[in-house]
Specification:
By secondary structure, the chain is of the alpha+beta class. It has a single domain (4-248), classed as Alpha-Beta Plaits, CATH 3.30.70. The chain contains 8 helices and 10 strands. It has a 4-stranded mixed sheet with strand order 8-1-10-9. A two-stranded antiparallel sheet has the order 2-3.
Length: 255
């Protein structure tokens, strides 16, 4: 048995965003001209207490790849579009997905649920492609990012003789290499990289080594050793989904 899991060491994580940028570059997650974005790797920034007794926390969030995922239970397709792989990854099959979005409704790990505050956006964990935009709108925009200083997106595309990112070039049975409309998508633990013996892009990019990935069912794996060494927690354990993203230690202390 294999159960891939991720441990995030909050004492090492400083919220630099390298993991989110690496994820977006690896998976070409959507960035629209209206400012909306799909981030499979995201952050919750939390400040609690009253000055001077305050505490700040950066909490990276992603799909928890639950052992008992609520998102998959009510998926209406057969076979299910959202399912568990033999490696314990919660996966979405593009061809079987009908865009009903029931998985989004059932997933307890939206930003609102985690924060108990709806001001942080909708469904950070599972995204929905409402429009067929395989190419980021930025690369069709002729406006300079900094007038008189930088090139525009369309200038960059002309130099490259391509309109990036045109496709993800996944070699994967469940994810198409060109983004499809009217389907849901989410973190895959970079399954296409795992099959080539590589780590997820977010893990590889983290400059402080805050993210550790491996097989939690292997007692000698680094993730198993870290969970044995440190007290850990998961998000919303009361939901009974058995998340496989664990958090250890803490970044800041009460001042």
């Amino acid at each position: 048995m294999t159960q891939y899991s991720m441990i995030i060491d909050l004492q090492k994580c400083v919220g630099c965003g390298a993991c989110a940028l690496a994820c977006k570059a690896e998976n070409n997650t959507e960035l629209r001209n209206n400012g909306q974005t799909h981030n499979w790797a995201d952050f919750v920034h939390i400040t609690t207490g009253t000055f001077p007794n305050t505490k700040y926390q950066t909490l990276p969030v992603l799909c928890n790849h639950c052992s008992d995922p609520a998102c998959a239970k009510n998926c209406p397709t057969e076979p299910k579009a959202i399912f568990k792989t033999a490696d314990g990854i919660t996966m979405v099959n593009n061809e079987r997905c009908v865009g009903c979005r029931s998985c989004q409704d059932d997933c307890p790990y939206s930003m609102e649920e985690v924060l108990k505050d709806g001001a942080y956006g909708e469904y950070s964990v599972i995204s929905y492609n409402s429009d067929n935009i395989p190419v980021h709108g930025f690369y069709r925009d002729g406006k300079e990012l900094i007038p008189g200083c930088t090139s525009s997106g369309i200038d960059t595309a002309r130099v490259l003789r391509a309109t990036p990112p045109h496709r993800t070039k996944y070699d994967h049975p469940d994810y198409e290499d060109v983004r499809e409309e009217s389907v849901v998508e989410k973190c895959t633990f970079c399954d296409h990289r795992l099959k080539n013996g590589e780590l997820p892009a977010c893990v590889e990019a983290c400059p402080s080594g805050a993210r550790v990935f491996g097989d939690i069912d292997h007692k000698n794996s680094e993730v198993s050793k870290l969970l044995e060494k440190h007290k850990s927690f998961v998000l919303m354990p009361e939901k009974g989904t058995k998340p496989n993203v664990f958090y250890v230690r803490d970044y800041s202390v009460t001042a």
